[in-house]
Amino acid sequence: MHFSKKSRFKPLFKQIIRLRGNIQNRKKLLNFKKKKWKDTIQFYKKKIKLYKNYQKFKPLDQTKYYITRYSNRGTEYKKKFRDKLNTKISIRLLYGGLSDKKLKNNIKQLSKRRNTIDSKLELLKLFETRLDTILYRAKFSSSLRGAGQLITHGKVYVNNHKVKSKSYQIKPGDLININPKFLQLYKISIVRSTKWPLPPKHLMINYRTMQILFINNIKQTTLSTLFLFNLRLQKILINHI
After folding, report:
1. Over the stretch 204-228, which tens digit does the pLDDT of each residue have?
2. What CATH number labels 61-241?
3. Which helix (H) or strand (E) segment is 52 a member of?
4. pTM of the entire structure?
């Protein structure tokens, strides 16, 4: 597994204790037996029950602005700071250990054109058009970290050019190729690709030739089914845009 120097020794699962949620939806978390994980696992199991019960769970539209039920909830400075910090950590973990610098750069890009676009939707588009995210959505990898490993080891090609940057932004019409010699590395993920959620509509995938074609209709894709929790994007955008 390839890690950057800053995150090489940073524990992955310990960050979930404060967030009280399985951000990356890893089943390994449910097998932890130490006492410090007891409350976190119980809280996460309750979320799973609501998620599986279609009568109670409703997919969230991440582009809408959500208001808390209680007007005086989270009005203190410490609570606001905590919520913003937890939101930032959740998004960074969700997208495979996204660096703080990269997150800030994406927000700066939006601030330059804030008058013409929907900030939340465009921020999600920046995340969803990353090369590692597209490989994960296409079921070529079981996790974003696994997708990043394929990229950094030179097994992924964009328009017949080798790309080793996980944050490479895919443009409409780009063709992504996977080296067929390493089919066994992601064969299990491809077999599970028929399970829900299915790959998004803005990707045309050929599992025989191991190719992905990116189409510019990401706005028509229902992004609400890709996330198990509310990203609360307004908390990190409100101070910048």
Report:
1. 888 888 889 998 767 666 676 677 6
2. 3.10.290.10
3. helix 38-52
4. 0.79
